[in-house]
Specification:
alpha+beta; Jelly Rolls; Cupin_8; oxidoreductase; 2-oxoglutarate-dependent dioxygenase activity
Length: 424
Amino acid sequence: MDRDTRVFAESHFRGLRGRLPGRVCPKLDRVDFIEKPDAFSYADFFKGYLLPNLPCVFSSAFTEDWGSRRLWVTPGGKPNFDYLLQNYGDLVVPVANCGVQEYNSNPKEHMPLRDYISYWKEYIQGNYSSPRGCLYLKDWHLCRDSSAEDVFTLPVYFSSDWLNEYWDVLDVDDYRFVYMGPSGTWSPFHADIFRSFSWSVNICGRKKWFFFPPGQEEFLRDSRGGLPYDVTSPTLLDGHLHARLDLCNPPLEVTQEAGEMVFVPSGWHHQVHNLEDTISINHNWVNGCNLANMWHFLQQELCAVQREIIEWRDTMSDWHRHCQVMMKSCSGINFKDFYHFLKVIAERRLRFLAEGVDPGQVGGSKGCGLGPQQAAFDVGRIAEVLECVVAHADFQRVDTSAFSPQPEELLQQLEEVVAATVSL
């Protein structure tokens, strides 16, 4: 990040005056297509799409040097099953059944990749049909299971990735995934975890995306308040079940070709269908631009849990602690975890600014690697959100006695650095 981009970004957030980033979206009739890597800088992406929280598609020129596009694909553009079997066949992968609905997702099982590829071949031979159903390999943590060397190169536009930086430090998880599946596999209507950003590259094949800007999903809710499972289903046209549907704008539709890269903004609900046999690489990521959205989402999740067990509030002495436990069970994170997330990223940025140690050199993590202006911007965004966290009544009920530093102490450190870096 250069200084002009940082100044522009800080002015943007001051102008929001506490409103959530990206919640007011201009009515769009198309998604921008970015053609040439040499003509599109990090600053262009940051100002044009990341800050305003708008989707875009990058051409296949941005990924043409990826090893996966060369090695995972046959000369005819199909999945290279032989290469995948030889290099990853024994790895166990998660597989979802697209033909079965459990709540608003698909049930999953685990199997060796070689078994899934055997199924896939049989599915193709059966004219894209099988008694086993339509199975989709989803959320495979290849980077955790095996070396990702020569598979892909992280695009600079997505390098400020706090979510995976944090999990790399803990060395227990990540949000980097591979998806593989035959034509007809699909992902139901959803918004990405923690209201993260995401990016998705088709290594081969084609996808159809349906995008809804933040807030539009409210018009799709049914009479019980539930979101649809499939926005292409005829049941969505039932006026008694979906009384507010006429207030919803039509989705933005994008057909993603092989090699192309889709940027999914924070809080945009979407649904994705594979139009051909398709392999994709996908990351979820959070940074200073959507951190406030993540915090707002966590507050909503806690409120939902509290409503569910409100009847026991007066009879349960540790009701608030139970809410936090249930929140983590449902969402994968609670307020304590969120503070730890902020602390880890904050301390790495503070160390960089104090000692010049790049986050990418700390603890073996890939880090952000975008320089002092990015670090200063990050510190400012963490300080603003942490101030809200510290003031939140439910966070004040969390036992922070073992926290080091204490939240108020960390906030003071951040605010001092923000003041000191104004002229950086």
